[in-house]
């Protein structure tokens, strides 16, 4: 029985994988993984995008609830009525 090591379940790299990796590395610019030399000027952009996303989420969900409520009210859908016990012979 072979010892269970992390390499046990790995398959051998194929030619297609090597060709794809070589093409990706040739296409990427040389500094694609290098850290920025200076921090970005607008550090609050992330917070702004987060707040805009949160606002969009709230507006869309409130709008959806409003539309569902209006559709239910317009169509006259009501909660199912409780059946009387007399209907079951009790």
Question: Can you give a write-up of this model?
Answer:
The chain is built from two helices and no strands. The protein has helices spanning 15-27, 45-75. The mean pLDDT is 76.
Which value, in Å, is the CA radius of gyration? Answer: 30 Å
State the distance separating the first and last CA atoms: 69 Å
Provide the residue-averaged pLDDT: 76
Oligomer: single chain
Largest sheet: none
Fraction of residues in β-strands: under 5%
What's the number of extended β-strand segments? 0
Helix content: 40-55%
Structural class, by secondary structure, is mainly alpha
* Total of DSSP H or I helical runs spanning 4+ residues: 2
Instruction: Sketch the topology as an H/E string, one letter per element.
Output: HH
User: Which spans have pLDDT < 50 for at least 5 consecutive residues?
Assistant: none
Shape: flat
Question: How would you describe this structure in keywords?
Answer:
90 residues; 49% helix; 2 helices; single chain; mainly alpha
Summarize the topology:
Layout: H1 15-27, H2 45-75
Short description:
This protein is mainly α and 90 residues long.
